[in-house]
């Protein structure tokens, strides 16, 4: 019986996963189909970009600075073993632009702005505001979810760019100002080794994909939350967990496609 129970539990988990993926795809398709209606009111999208980006700005800047400081310190001690301290700027820039900038920005966005989106939508559902919009013949997907989706899609790449820029500044502070790496070598190695299309553009594509995933997960959890305090709290927790795992999984797939041999 224990084996049968395990098989049944595995089947239920697989069925729940397929069901969630279907709900994710259907909601995303619904938002995309209403894109023309959503973009007719760009002020709503601009307000969401300001709301989501501004609320995440402080943690992005602070985290980017400290990540750059740590990268500069660890990178210097590693490169010094091989007499390549001049390549510190290249190491810091590639690590931030390719990986750490998009990934950490998306994780912080999920924990800060994603939970805010889920709680906001969940409370609107619990307060029957979404039902009231439907009663007045207003589509809640186009009026409520759509602007927030596109706001997150725009905000995440901007935050990732800012994270990488501040991180490079942190690496420069440690390597050049504190340790004494030659500033000319620091910047020349960076400018000569970082390719715009292979590194910068691929990093932006990553952040766009992460923005779609995290924002859509946050909206789906809020839109599908039970209209109770416990349901909203559970949906908010799931936003962080599922969003973070989705970012890490997508990062592996995108890195393998962009920089690997797959």
Describe this structure in words.
With 262 residues, the protein is an all-alpha fold. The protein has one domain (59-257). It is built from 9 helices and no strands. Helix 3 runs parallel beside helix 6 and helix 8 packs antiparallel against helix 9 (229-259). The longest helix is centred in the middle third of the chain and has 40 residues, at 140-179. The radius of gyration is 21 Å and the shape is globular. It starts with a helix and ends with a helix. The mean pLDDT is 92.
Keywords:
single chain; 262 residues; mainly alpha; 9 helices
Topology:
Layout lengths: L1 H32 L1 H4 L3 H39 L7 H39 L2 H7 L4 H40 L3 H11 L2 H28 L5 H31 L3
Helix pairs in contact: 1-6, 3-4, 3-6, 4-6, 4-7, 4-8, 4-9, 6-8, 8-9
Helicity range: over 70%
N-to-C SSE string, H for helix and E for strand? HHHHHHHHH
Which regions have little confidence, pLDDT < 50, spanning 5+ residues?
Answer: none
Mean pLDDT over the residues:
92
**End-to-end distance:** 42 Å
In short:
This protein is mainly alpha-helical and 262 residues long.
């Amino acid at each position: 019986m224990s084996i049968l129970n395990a098989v049944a539990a595995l089947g239920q988990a697989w069925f729940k996963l397929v069901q969630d993926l279907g709900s994710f795809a259907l909601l995303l398709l619904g938002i995309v189909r209403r894109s023309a209606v959503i973009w007719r009111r760009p002020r709503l999208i601009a307000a969401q970009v300001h709301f989501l980006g501004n609320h995440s700005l402080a943690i992005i800047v602070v985290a980017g600075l400290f990540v750059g400081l740590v990268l500069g310190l660890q990178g210097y001690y590693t490169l010094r073993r091989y007499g390549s301290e001049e390549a510190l700027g290249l190491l810091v820039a590639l690590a931030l632009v390719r990986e750490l900038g998009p990934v950490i920005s998306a994780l912080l966005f999920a924990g800060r702005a994603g939970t805010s989106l889920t709680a906001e939508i969940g409370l609107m559902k619990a307060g029957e505001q979404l039902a009231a919009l439907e009663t007045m013949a207003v589509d809640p997907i186009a009026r409520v979810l759509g602007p927030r989706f596109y706001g997150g899609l725009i905000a995440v790449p901007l935050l990732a760019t800012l994270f990488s820029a501040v991180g490079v500044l942190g690496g420069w502070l440690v390597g050049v100002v504190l340790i004494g790496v030659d500033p000319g070598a620091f910047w020349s190695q960076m400018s000569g080794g970082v390719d715009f299309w292979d590194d910068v553009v691929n990093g932006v594509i990553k952040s766009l994909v992460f923005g779609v995933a995290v924002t859509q997960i946050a909206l789906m959890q809020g839109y599908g939350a039970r209209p109770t305090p416990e349901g909203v709290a559970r949906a908010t927790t799931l936003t962080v967990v599922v969003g973070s795992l989705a970012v890490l999984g997508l990062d592996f797939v995108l890195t393998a496609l962009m920089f690997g041999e797959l």
